Amino acid sequence: MRWRANFVAGLVVILPAVISIAILKWLFGTVSSITDLLLFFVPRQITRAQDGRGDTHWYWSLLALAIGLLLVAIVGRAARNYVGRKLIQSVDRALSQVPLLNKIYSVVKQVNEAFSSTKKSSFKQVVLVEYPRRGIYSIGFITSDDVPEISNKLQAAVASVFIPTTPNPTTGFLLVVPRNEVIRLDMPVSDGIKYLISLGSVVPVYSFPAGSGAALPTPPAAPPAPGSTGVS
User: Fold this and answer.
1) Cα–Cα distance measured from residue 11 to residue 14, given in angstroms and rounded to the nearest whole number
2) Where are the domains of the chain?
3) Taking a C-beta distance cutoff of 8 angstroms, is the pair 202, 194 a contact?
4) Which of 61, 180, 191, 210 is the S-S candidate for 187 at Cβ 3.0 to 4.6 Å?
5) Lowest-confidence segment of 6-15, 61-70, 101-110, 129-138 by average pLDDT
6) CB-based burial of residue 189 (10 Å sphere; 0-12 exposed, 13-18 middle, 19+ buried)?
7) What is the C-alpha to C-alpha distance for residues 139 and 161, in angstroms, rounded to an integer?
8) Cα separations (Å) of 136 from 27, 40, 130, 139, 162?
9) How far is the CA of 134 from the CAs of 125, 138, 196, 219, in angstroms?
10) What are the pLDDT digits (tens) for 101-149?
């Protein structure tokens, strides 16, 4: 029916914008739940609805977010000079000596350094590995090309491969795979992430090497409809 076709066409146009706005709203709500604490110097009766008993007004949350960004910039500026680095190192040592907190802090710090390092990418390359069984392949990302202890125990060179879930690639599984069983792909990491988030519908463009003579296999023909003779 025509109305159904119009509805589907409208949904295709509107859905990306709606999802983007919903994600932005969720991110703002998550971050503001932390940055709102920076408004401690303002009476709750002013910043919150229902005479201080309700939620924080959005414009106050926006101000708190701006204050948070300013503080992050100030800390970043301080980290670039000698006095600031020494102060940050002192705070780092203090947090590392607090029982229980030091365990959480050290792990979070290591993960943060791995993902924010400018020297190397946390996701080095898009790869294929046979998972969860032989003959079935999963898209993954190389996170480390060498794990010395594991390589020594297995007497084989191994690589750490992160297998993300879809459509949320921030969760997944860590596999230790022999290097000779890792199929390295040419697609950029960004295209690999898009492929995962889109549930495989956004396929990266691939150009076959010149003179390779390679071609994509022809998909099988659809079976004839019931009752059809298959003759046109």
Assistant:
1) 5
2) 2-116, 125-197
3) yes
4) 191
5) 101-110
6) middle
7) 9
8) 35, 54, 6, 10, 16
9) 22, 11, 21, 22
10) 878 877 777 666 655 555 455 678 899 999 998 899 999 999 888 889 9
